[in-house]
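Figure 6 in text form: structure in, sequence out.
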């Protein structure tokens, strides 16, 4: 590996990787639960009440306890929940994730659902959850454990005539559109029988508590898994505007297109005259109060009235953990999340320009950026994902700085980037030259959305395996190494 003074690029790769993996490991779901709730006997105490519902919930007041766990982090969320909530009488539940746990509870039905595209179990899980929730009455409390990935892992078309194959094609069109996640999920909410609040209204009389592990911006919390328990404020008019903006209608299967073109296309449940105001960054308690205020508004669906929302962890926690690790290692740390939901090429240019400006004053710098970039595909993709696409674009720019101690890492906290088994990749000023020496054309790989083979051949993929987490992506831009040479 090339040396730069007393700094090796290999050591920078190792440092970036350790910051990413260390920040993720510090986002502990068990401790997050314990910061939010304490259970004494049959009473659940909310330790950080935010105005959404009571400070205490007496489980003894309910004959039945239903639990719906969905998303990539469903397994650890359910494990911790069951370890804290000892009550088992009257408990039944549904579990939907991309991997089945080795240990299962007989009170639950388990489904190994598909991601990034739904599969048959995605449909089966949604049907099972609806069937269970329709049994809920006023004597029922429902706990929803919701993490990222639920938009594919848990789905069912509102139009029963739309097949699984057509639904998969619909999801493929959304992923290739280049639209930001909020707009993608506006379409999903109106398409689905379990999104956009429709899961909550399946149990209109029950008390509902949602524990959330968001992989979306906190200002758009109702986009988490397309908001199955949150009131939706987007409209049919918004749907049609998005379809037109991204020229998407012609790319949809005929039955899906016909559904969206229906004059009587149903609105999702929620107050359509209320729009979310500007939210301060990471104002979690403020956000929860506003969601609850919206839920309490009287509209045609009053099923959100008895709803509580608790945010367990977010990308804010991920960033703060990364900041602490980098500072402890002696780096000057800057954080900029403003390119969230930007096109990957624009985000690459923006972050590298900021990086070069900052490193002129801080030779030992770690620039941190969280959130997700978008990729608009004009052809069938190769093997890759948004993180590897971003990193390869960065590598092409870094090639203009030969001999400089620079490293860029971009990786997904779920351990999966696009259609690959890598979480992301790492680049430095030698990446392009090394790739060419291996027979790759980096510009062609970028154009064909086929970055994974290149990074795999170089040994520069970030591979964690599935993490049972999903706190969005983390990008790290490093220069220099504190305290002299580092080694693996």
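Output sequence:
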């Amino acid at each position: 590996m090339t040396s730069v003074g007393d700094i090796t690029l290999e050591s920078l790769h190792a440092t970036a990787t350790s910051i990413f993996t260390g920040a993720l490991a510090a986002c502990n779901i068990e401790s997050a639960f314990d910061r939010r709730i304490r259970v004494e006997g049959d009473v659940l105490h909310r330790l950080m009440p935010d105005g959404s519902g009571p400070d205490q919930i007496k489980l003894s007041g309910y004959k039945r306890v239903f639990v719906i766990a969905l998303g990539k982090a469903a397994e650890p969320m359910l494990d911790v929940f069951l370890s804290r909530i000892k009550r088992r009488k009257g408990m039944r539940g549904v579990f939907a994730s991309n991997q089945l746990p080795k240990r299962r509870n007989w009170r639950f039905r388990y489904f190994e659902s598909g991601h990034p595209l739904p599969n048959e179990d995605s449909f089966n899980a949604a049907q099972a959850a609806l069937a269970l929730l329709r049994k809920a009455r006023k004597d029922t409390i429902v706990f929803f454990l919701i993490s990222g990935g639920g938009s594919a892992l848990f789905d069912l078309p509102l139009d029963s005539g739309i097949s699984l194959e057509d639904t998969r094609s619909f999801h493929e069109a959304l992923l290739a559109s280049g639209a930001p996640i909020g707009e993608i999920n506006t379409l999903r909410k109106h398409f689905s029988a379990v999104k956009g609040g429709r899961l909550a209204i399946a149990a209109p009389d029950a008390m509902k508590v949602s524990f959330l592990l968001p992989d979306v911006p906190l200002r758009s919390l109702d986009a988490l898994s397309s908001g199955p328990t949150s009131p939706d404020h987007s409209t049919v008019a918004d749907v049609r505007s998005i379809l037109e903006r991204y020229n998407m209608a012609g790319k949809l299967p005929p039955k899906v297109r016909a559904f969206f073109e229906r004059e009587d296309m149903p609105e999702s449940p929620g107050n359509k005259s209320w729009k979310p105001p500007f939210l301060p960054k990471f104002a979690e308690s403020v956000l929860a109060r506003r969601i609850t205020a919206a839920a309490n508004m009287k509209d045609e669906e009053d099923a959100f009235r008895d709803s509580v929302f608790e945010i367990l962890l977010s990308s804010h926690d991920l960033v703060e953990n990364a900041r602490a690790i980098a500072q402890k290692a002696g780096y000057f740390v800057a954080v900029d999340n403003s390119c969230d939901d930007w096109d990957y090429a624009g985000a690459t240019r923006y972050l590298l320009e900021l990086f070069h400006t900052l490193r002129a004053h801080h030779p030992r710098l770690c620039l941190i950026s969280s959130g997700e970039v978008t990729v608009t595909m004009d052809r069938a993709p190769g093997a890759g994902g948004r993180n590897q696409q971003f990193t390869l674009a960065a590598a092409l720019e870094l090639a203009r700085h030969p001999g400089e101690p620079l490293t860029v890492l971009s990786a997904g906290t779920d351990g999966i980037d696009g259609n690959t088994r890598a979480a992301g990749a790492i680049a430095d000023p030698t990446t392009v030259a090394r790739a060419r020496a291996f027979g790759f054309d980096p510009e062609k790989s970028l154009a064909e959305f086929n970055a994974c083979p290149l990074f795999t051949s170089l040994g520069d993929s970030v591979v964690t395996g599935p993490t049972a987490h999903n706190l969005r992506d983390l990008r790290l831009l490093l220069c220099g190494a504190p305290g002299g040479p580092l080694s693996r």
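Caption detail: The longest strand covers residues 140-147.
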